[in-house]
């Protein structure tokens, strides 16, 4: 055997030892927990054969406690590049089979290096989180690592898409990296996120709570809003991540790819006119409207379980990738509350950052009333929605389906906040408030002095509705560009998208605004 053959053989043996991770027993334990290994996840996520690994032989240099002579393969994280369809992506995957995926100095430096490279190259970054947290033996070096990762997450925000997939524990300071990224996918019954665990909470506050109740995937998808997607297993989580790249570009200087019109199925769209009741007191599922106007099977809902009174998501319309924000009349009549405002505002800012047109479907009676909303800052949170729409410079197209009252009318992508095209269906009602409330204020004296107050009230409500609760008063002022029939929605929106494709909107020169957080 030649010297080169000997060196190659030693290299292969060393690499195979690294690729073995924590060894067969640890891998079996990972599989028994219904979890793929870090390397299996990467190969399942990326196109077959496309993974190109870097920093394979990185080792820790900690001499504290029991780590002086301990080998930690890859320092418990795998990093590299690969393909998802036509896109190059960067990825890191924490290896729970190696010291519980704990984060130390070199572990963090590997992540920081892939972050820096992705930012320089304009490549999206995907982080697969499965870690017991900071490696305590490395003390402040671990804290340095977290800080460096958070800093890079922030610098990359709005420049490259960042996606976090939580596929195991993610606790303490580790949770802030996913929180800064654009989308968080969590695996049900497996993923956990919390700042302080159940034992600390029990000791400090006396509350008795399990890890699943405190920071499980359903909690963060339904209650906290920290997660955007709920997956039933590792495979589904990775599929969700892959699907996201059908709609988004690689960076903020590019545009998401369109789908050729000749490949789109243009038949069997739902009759939108039959979905929307004329009676404003009747609810309906706005997702049926969405599915009736976008390309078949193209709607991908985001944050489906959180703040269900507003619907957000991606779709293709005539092959053009878009983002959709829509009031949901089947939930609280489509009222806007604190959580819905936050949910929509953050999504709008993502769409604006990555050059995706915003389609807004409006049917809302206003902001949700009540002391809980007022005391918890509905003014500030509602202002986020106003701010996000006003700040966005991508094409903004709005269709008023039915109710559009008061401040909520303004907040939901109105012309007054810079919408490029605003259309309304004949069922639209655009006014300061609903006919019932308006009539009670405007005609109070006449109603009070009437011999038949209820009859007079009904007459005045109908009078107000006929005069103002329709799209034509707003259209007469030019606030509505066009009144259209439901069966014209898809074609009208598509035309507006093609007209505004090359939109350029100047913006004041400034470091950044001060969104009302």
Can you tell me about this structure?
39% of the residues lie in helices and 17% in strands. It folds into three domains: 3-244, 2-enoyl-CoA Hydratase, Chain A, domain 1; 261-433 and 470-499, 2-enoyl-CoA Hydratase, Chain A, domain 1 (Alpha-Beta Complex); 435-468, no CATH class. The protein has 21 helices and 17 strands. Strands 10, 11, 12, 13, 14, 15, 16 and 17 form an eight-stranded mixed beta sheet that branches. By secondary structure, it is of the alpha/beta class.
Feature tags:
517 residues, alpha/beta, 2-enoyl-CoA Hydratase, Chain A, domain 1, 3 domains, eight-stranded mixed β-sheet, seven-stranded mixed β-sheet
Give the proportion of residues in helices: 25-40%
The span between the termini is 67 Å
Helix-strand makeup class:
alpha/beta
Counted beta strands: 17
Radius of gyration, taken over Cα atoms and rounded to an integer in Å: 27 Å
How is the biggest beta sheet arranged?
A: 8 strands, mixed
Low-confidence stretches: none
Number of domains: 3
CATH superfamily of the largest domain: 2-enoyl-CoA Hydratase, Chain A, domain 1
Number of helices: 21
Q: Give the second-level CATH assignment, the architecture of the largest domain.
A: Alpha-Beta Complex
Q: Within the CATH hierarchy, at the fold level, what is the topology of the largest domain?
A: 2-enoyl-CoA Hydratase, Chain A, domain 1
Strand content: 15-25%
Q: What is the level 1 CATH name of the largest domain?
A: Alpha Beta
Mean pLDDT: 93
Estimate the global geometry from the Cα principal axes: elongated
């Amino acid at each position: 055997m030649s010297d080169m053959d000997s060196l190659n053989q030693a290299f292969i043996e060393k690499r195979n030892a690294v690729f073995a991770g924590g060894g067969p027993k640890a891998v079996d334990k990972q599989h028994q927990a219904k979890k793929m290994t870090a390397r299996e996840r990467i190969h399942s996520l990326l196109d077959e054969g496309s993974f190109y690994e870097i920093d394979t032989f990185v080792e820790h240099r900690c001499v504290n406690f029991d780590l002086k002579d301990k080998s930690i393969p890859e320092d418990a994280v795998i990093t590299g590049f690969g393909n998802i369809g036509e896109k190059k992506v960067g990825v890191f995957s924490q290896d729970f089979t190696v010291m519980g995926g704990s984060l130390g100095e070199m572990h963090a430096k590997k992540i920081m290096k892939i972050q820096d490279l992705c930012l320089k190259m304009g490549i999206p970054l995907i982080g697969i989180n499965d870690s017991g947290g900071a490696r305590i033996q490395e003390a402040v070096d671990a804290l340095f690592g977290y800080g460096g990762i958070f800093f890079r997450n922030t610098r990359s925000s709005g420049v490259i898409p960042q996606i976090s997939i939580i596929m195991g524990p993610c606790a303490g300071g580790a949770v802030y990296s996913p929180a800064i990224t654009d989308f968080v996918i969590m695996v049900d019954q497996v993923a956990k996120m919390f700042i302080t665990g159940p034992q600390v909470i029990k000791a400090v506050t006396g509350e008795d709570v399990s890890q699943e109740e405190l920071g499980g995937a359903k909690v963060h998808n339904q209650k906290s809003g920290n997660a955007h997607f709920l997956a039933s297993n590792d495979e589904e989580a990775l599929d969700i991540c892959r699907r996201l790249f059908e709609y988004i570009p690689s960076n903020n200087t590019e545009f998401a790819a369109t789908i050729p019109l000749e490949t789109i199925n243009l038949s069997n769209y739902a009759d939108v006119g039959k979905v929307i009741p004329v009676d404003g007191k009747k609810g309906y599922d706005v997702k049926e409207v969405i599915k009736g106007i976008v390309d078949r099977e193209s709607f991908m809902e985001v944050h489906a379980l959180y703040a269900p009174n507003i619907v957000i998501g991606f779709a293709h319309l005539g092959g053009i990738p878009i983002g959709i924000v829509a009031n949901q009349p089947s939930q609280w009549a489509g009222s806007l509350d604190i959580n819905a405002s936050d949910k929509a505002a953050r999504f709008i800012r993502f769409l604006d950052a990555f050059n995706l047109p915003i389609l807004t479907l409006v049917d809302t009676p206003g902001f949700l009333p009540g002391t809980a909303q007022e005391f918890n800052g509905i003014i500030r949170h509602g202002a986020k929605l106003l701010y996000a729409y006003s700040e966005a410079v991508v094409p903004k197209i709005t269709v008023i389906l039915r109710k559009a009252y008061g401040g909520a009318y303004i907040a939901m992508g109105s012309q007054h906040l810079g919408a490029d095209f605003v259309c309304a269906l004949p069922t639209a009602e655009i006014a300061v408030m609903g006919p019932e409330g308006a009539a009670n204020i405007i005609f109070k004296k006449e109603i009070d002095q009437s011999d038949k107050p209820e009859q007079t009230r009904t007459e005045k409500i109908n009078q107000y509705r006929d005069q103002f609760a329709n799209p034509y008063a707003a259209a007469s002022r030019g606030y509505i560009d066009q009144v259209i029939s439901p069966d014209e929605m898809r074609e009208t929106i598509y035309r507006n998208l093609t007209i505004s494709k090359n939109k350029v909107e100047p913006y004041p020169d400034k470091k950044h605004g001060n969104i009302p957080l």
